[in-house]
Amino acid sequence: MSAPKENLKARLARMGWMKTVASLLLLVVVYAWTSTSLDIKPSQFLDGSTWRAMADLTVRLGPFYRVNKCNDAHTAWGDDEPLAGKPNPKKVRAVCEQGRSQYLFYDDYWEDQKAFLKDMKDPLLDTFRMAIVGAFFGALLAIPFSLLAARNLVKWTPVYYTVRALLNLIRTVPDLVWAALLTGALGVGALPGVLALTIFSFGLNAKLLSESIETIDQGPLEAMKACGASWIQQVRYGVVPQVMPQFLAYSLYVLEIDVRASTVLGLVGAGGIGVLFNTQLTYGKWHRVGAIIVVMLVVVWVMDFVSTKVRERLI
Amino acid sequence: MTTARSTAPGPAPLSLWKRWAPTFWFLVVIAVVVWAMTGMKSYTVKWSEAWPSTVNIVKLMVRADWPYTPTLLAKLLETVQMALLGTLLASILAIPFGFLASRNMGKKLSGFGKMMLNAIRAFPEIILAIIFIKGVGPGPLAGIMAMGIHSIGMLGKLYAESVEAIDKGPTEAMLSVGANRIQQIWFGVVPQVLPEFSSYALYRFEINSRAATILGIVGAGGIGTDLIFAIQQRVWSRVGIILLGIIVVVTAIDLGSGWLRKKLV
């Protein structure tokens, strides 16, 4: 009669386009489900007022301020002498009495930014300090735990699984949540930030390090075991020389991530430049917020560049 | 660097610098850490008071606020949906960036594309969320847009790398039978990169589901808002159950997406 019946798998493989259609369908379903239950319409992405508000904000992150109402806070200050980073009342009145809405340039923009840069120095250094201390203690803590979380070094599986589970547990909680929790417990300041970063970098570093310990060459370990070396001796002379370069590279990588994280930890009150960011945000000093964002970007870029270069040399 | 050891039986004795370099760098690290620890402002915690209160907080957190579960589940679902939609947005927006930044497809524009991706990546999600909140108001949309934009940076970079690694054969074969550029990309490149693209998008979904839990801290929707309110009001039993929820959801997404990614590539 006819050819033998193809099995389902072969038929599906023949119809490769079905896969594409199925995945596209899945995407549409996901989109439809999420957007309806979150009540988000595509028009909101493209809405004119959204983008007008965004554009307005972008202008105000630069050296401009907006005047639209005469009873605005700008004129309420009422000083004839414009203070640092404040709008010029005379100009504001001139614009708003004509009933127009206009962007004006801060008269003392550069002076204000220069002065603000001085204010930024301490929080910025604090940011670096928090990241350094966090990454350092995280790395120190990671050493013993990564040894315990390596399959090839720990033969007694309960220890291995417990340590693994602990590390996974630590890593599932995001850094900002750690910071928020510790600020709640210990109060506002750099210390909760340092502790949050320590916990966070410990989880990350221990995970990376334990994985590279698991891939080491077993030869030296077995040779040493055959000569009767103790566990400590095996680790000291068999494991440490093999993973040291990776450990240093990971620590640097973690430091890089910590610097990134510590710039925003201040949003929950955990010290660093984020605290300053939050203050300027609450006061609506957008040009200063813009300056902080620029500084954050520069810091992240420099850190990225330096850490990549050093890591290239290490491995 | 530090593996160099003076006692090793080598043919030539190590130079003075090589012998002392590990010690030198070790001292530099210690000096930097000491500088960092001593210079830090606002070390105002009194451990004699802070430690018992921390222990007390942990005790309260363990006594989870179970009646809160229905709200928690709704909020967690919202968080996951935010992550899904944000990832969907980013994984589509990142495709043109990926092609632009790849050396074989973007040609001369590759460097420019990579620079743009780096610039996008440098903005932390939470800062973007704050900016978008000013645009669209507090709520999940701001968070989705923040994740959607921030994720382009990483996804575009990974996409570009997988586009760079494709096999030239199919494209050249099509060129030889007279296919135009669009046809070449659609039939020669897309089938090759699609599994990797979706695998990266899934990986980014894992990261975004973590990010979505914190975006609420600044008011961009999701569980973070409830978490930060509970912490500020010191309702530790509620903090405990929210943390539990975050851990369970993130772990579940990690496992599920890891399994799916193994199937894809």
Instruction: Look at the helices and sheets of chain A and give the structural class.
Output: mainly alpha
Rounded radius of gyration of chain B (Å): 25 Å
Helicity of chain A, in percent?
Answer: over 70%
For this structure, the CATH topology of chain B is MetI-like fold
End-to-end distance of chain A, in Å?
Answer: 66 Å
How do the helices and strands line up, and which of them pair or pack?
The complex is a heterodimer of chains A (315) and B (265).
Chain A: H1 8-14, H2 16-37, H3 42-46, H4 48-61, E1 64-67, H5 73-76, H6 89-96, E2 102-105, H7 109-148, H8 157-172, H9 175-186, H10 190-214, H11 219-226, H12 231-265, H13 273-282, H14 286-314
Antiparallel strand pairs in A: 1-2
Helix pairs in contact in A: 7-10, 7-12, 7-13, 7-14, 8-10, 9-10, 10-12, 11-12, 12-14, 13-14
Chain B: H1 16-39, H2 47-62, H3 69-101, H4 103-106, H5 110-122, H6 125-136, H7 140-164, H8 169-176, H9 181-215, H10 223-232, H11 236-264
Folded structure, characterized:
The complex is a heterodimer of chains A (315) and B (265). By secondary structure, chain A is mostly helical. Chain A folds into three domains: 8-33; 59-107, no CATH class; 111-314, MetI-like fold, CATH 1.10.3720.10. Chain A contains 14 helices and two strands. Chain A has helices spanning 8-14, 16-37, 42-46, 48-61, 73-76, 89-96, 109-148, 157-172, 175-186, 190-214, 219-226, 231-265, 273-282, 286-314, and strands spanning 64-67, 102-105. In chain A, strands 1-2 form a two-stranded antiparallel sheet. The longest helix of chain A has 40 residues, at 109-148. Chain A is flat and about 90 Å long. The N and C termini of chain A lie far apart (66 Å). By secondary structure, chain B is mainly α. In chain B, α3 (69-101) packs across α11, α5 runs antiparallel to α7 and α7 crosses α9. The relative contact order of chain B is 0.12. The mean pLDDT of chain B is 86. The interface between A and B is large, with 66 and 67 residues.
